[in-house]
């Protein structure tokens, strides 16, 4: 192995660990740059949702994500808005502007445990939801204590710094299964979380009895490990990029969370014979691999050359994500089953919400489906089966790597991309034997 290869290989391996489960959904194949495309000019041989392009002088390497417009007579226009979870601030600013122009936005974001349980289900089910929400809140309290070296005194102190899905999950968890507020009790260095049961009053028996987190088993090590900053946020910060859930403002009246709940995802995985543990641990940074990546990113963040190298790796890995996903399905037991749940089953929720919204009065003029780009091929196929046709594509630059900002990076970038391509080809050959 050459000195260059020895230098890059560890970061390539770490990026592969971080990128495949988290980012490989944003699949693509390399394509040449192009302007906004109409239905007449679309080249179906190219990837429709994500591409990598280079400037003419080779000084910029860009990751571009598509927004595809589909139309159907008598129905709202549908915008399939692909997104990568890590990108430039300018990317999210442009995406925000586009989304704010739509009549309705249905967005990705796994819902809280027992979402909707406050209005449906028996008391036993609502008590179970309450205990699950208390465990989530206990994790957030632990995170706050780890970061501030003291316990919070009210939920607002915990929720204020949160973003996106975690903020929504945390806010929802502050109500119990009956919709009553849960109380945070702090005494010295100990805390408790208490629901007053079905009647919303202290004491009582049966369904009216108080439910306290202190009566549950303590948080596990895995749960406590999830109290830290997520791996995607760490990766974004190390590369001078933004994390989607921090950069996008979801707090609009015409934005609706269109997804499954955590309970539903885990149930689907269990029914399929797979486990969601590895996925959720990777996303919240609690797996050993994620901790290893986070450790390495501490060095990357302090070195402009390493940061640019990893950014180039990430762009190339994403450009090869179709092949990586196929390899992962062959090499990782249960990966194909897990991806069906993560992509196709969750897409069914979006399609249900789209059908309902299309019948509302007044009918929305344009509905955006704001999801990771890996969801879009399946969504578009379902919409085509319903009579929708492609109208146009608009491309957004998600990551713009300025190779001239680091001396010698133009040449190194070519070597990095060639190395990744070569390694993928070697793995494909090995998998075919």
Series of H and E elements: HEEEEEHEHHHEEEHHEHEHHHHHHEHEH
Structural class: alpha+beta
The total count of strands amounts to 13
State the helical fraction. Answer: 40-55%
What is the overall number of helices? 16
Strand content: 15-25%
- What does the average pLDDT come to? 80
Low-confidence stretches are 1-5, 7-35, 116-120, 282-289
Domain unit count: 2
Please explain how this structure is put together:
With 433 residues, the chain is an alpha+beta fold. It has 2 domains: 310 residues, no CATH class; 104 residues, Glycoprotein, Type 4 Pilin. It is 48% helix and 16% strand. It is built from 16 helices and 13 strands. Strands 1, 2, 3, 4, 6, 11, 12 and 13 form an 8-stranded mixed β-sheet that branches. A 3-stranded antiparallel β-sheet has the order 7-8-9, with helices on one face. Strands 5-10 form a two-stranded antiparallel ribbon. The longest helix has 26 residues.
């Amino acid at each position: 192995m050459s000195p260059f290869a020895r230098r890059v290989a560890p970061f390539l391996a770490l990026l592969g660990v971080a990128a495949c489960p988290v980012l490989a959904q944003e699949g693509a194949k390399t394509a040449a740059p192009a302007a906004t495309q109409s239905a007449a000019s679309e080249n179906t041989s190219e990837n429709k949702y994500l591409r990598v392009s280079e400037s003419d002088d080779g000084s910029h390497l860009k990751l571009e994500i598509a927004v595809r417009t589909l139309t159907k007579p008598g129905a709202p226009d549908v915008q399939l808005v692909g997104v990568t979870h890590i990108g430039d601030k300018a990317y999210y600013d442009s995406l925000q502007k586009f989304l704010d122009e739509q009549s309705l936005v249905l967005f990705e974001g796994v819902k809280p445990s027992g979402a909707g349980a406050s209005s449906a289900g028996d008391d036993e089910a609502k008590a179970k939801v309450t205990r699950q929400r208390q465990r989530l809140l206990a994790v957030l309290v632990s995170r706050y204590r780890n970061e501030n070296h003291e316990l919070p005194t009210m939920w607002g102190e915990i929720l204020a710094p949160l973003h996106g899905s975690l903020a929504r999950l945390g806010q929802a968890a502050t109500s119990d299964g009956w919709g009553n507020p849960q109380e945070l009790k702090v005494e010295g260095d100990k805390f408790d979380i208490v629901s007053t049961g079905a009647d919303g009053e202290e004491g009582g028996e049966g369904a009216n009895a108080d439910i306290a987190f202190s009566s549950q088993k303590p948080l596990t090590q895995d749960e406590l490990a999830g109290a830290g900053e997520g791996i995607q946020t760490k990766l974004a910060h190390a590369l001078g990029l933004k994390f989607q859930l921090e950069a996008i403002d979801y707090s609009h009246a015409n934005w609706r969370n269109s997804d499954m709940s955590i309970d539903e995802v885990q149930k689907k995985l269990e029914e399929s014979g797979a486990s969601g543990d590895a996925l959720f641990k990777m996303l919240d940074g609690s797996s050993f691999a994620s901790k290893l990546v986070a450790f390495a990113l501490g060095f990357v963040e302090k070195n402009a050359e390493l940061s640019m190298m990893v950014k180039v790796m990430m762009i190339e890995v994403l450009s090869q994500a179709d092949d990586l996903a196929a390899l992962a399905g062959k090499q990782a037991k249960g990966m194909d089953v897990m991806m069906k749940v993560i992509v196709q089953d969750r897409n069914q929720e979006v399609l249900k919400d789209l059908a309902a919204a299309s019948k509302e009065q007044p009918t929305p003029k344009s509905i955006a489906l704001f999801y990771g780009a890996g969801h879009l091929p399946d969504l578009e196929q379902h919409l085509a089966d319903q009579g929708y046709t492609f109208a146009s594509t608009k491309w957004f630059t998600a990551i713009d790597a300025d190779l001239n900002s680091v001396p010698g990076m133009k040449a190194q970038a070519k070597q990095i991309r060639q190395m990744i391509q070569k390694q993928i080809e070697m793995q494909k050959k090995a998998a075919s034997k």
